[in-house]
Amino acid sequence: MRCTSKGRRRFSLLLAALVCCGSLSGCSWGEKLEDGFAVDQPGLGIQEQSQEYDISYFAEDLCVAGEDVSALDTDITDALAACFFNLDTKEILYAKNIHTRVYPASTTKIMTALVALEHGSGSLDDQTAVSKEAITFHESGVSTAKLKEGDVLTLRQLLYALLTVSANDAANAIAEKVGGDIDTFVGMMNDKAHAIGATNTHFVNPNGLHDEEHYTTAYDLYLMFQEAMKYDEFLEMLSVPLYEDSYLAADGTSVPVSWPSSNLFTKGDVTVPEGVKASGGKTGTTKAAMSCLVQLFEDAEGERYVAVILGCSERGTLYEEMQSFLSALNN
Known about the structure:
Number of helices: 8
Strand content: 15-25%
Strand order of the largest sheet: 3-5-4-12-11-10
Order of helices and strands: EEEEEHEEHHHHHEEHEEEH
Number of strands: 12
Radius of gyration: 19 Å
Largest sheet: 6 strands, antiparallel
């Protein structure tokens, strides 16, 4: 299926019921979650809304799909939603439940980075002090950069923490720096989402920690990722296996940092076929969202592909299903 460049499309979407972890085999929460918090069940739950959307596409180079598509010899069986698009030919190679609302976990941080770069790209080296609110969480097991109240970092450093170690404290600090306060920044995130056509998305926070009103779709994440790719800094930060630097503590002492990427492709722990490059991506993991990844690939001819997989029962399965896209592409 080839993408079209028509300026406006109307389509009616039925948001299908999602059955929780009982419908997915092999659910296991033994490993430490990237953004952990306590919930009873994974998945978004049952939504049977029939809604009609009128979406304006403001660029002519978007992939547009309104139904499931499988142009590859593969089937993504574990994930709740998935897509695989060729960004250069505009081909829809795979689409599964791409307009179904699911929880995004830390893939939310794609939009956090996009809004920060849009409003602060000229001042990435401006410094900001971390507030007490930015480092206060009511969930356990939350991924952070271990920032403390009064620490002074640049916006650039906070973005590296956001996109490598997936730091939720950095997300909050970015929101306060760019928006003035977290609520204002979240409003900016929602405004930007709607401006780029991501109308099945609603954010409640800048980090992706669980809230029933915090949701997106695989297709909307594709729209956000494509928009964020317009900033060279975004892909540069996503492609770093390990970020090392230092910042100032409140008492003026230097704090060394070593933030590893949460992305196993970026770290080199998961391989890709010969001739394929994993160019960067954003992970997300909570009990509710399960394992998620938005990933950019490049083939030997230089063509770029974006893959989105949301709601895998285990992290290992997530990478296996992501690799199946690449294997099918080479067949």
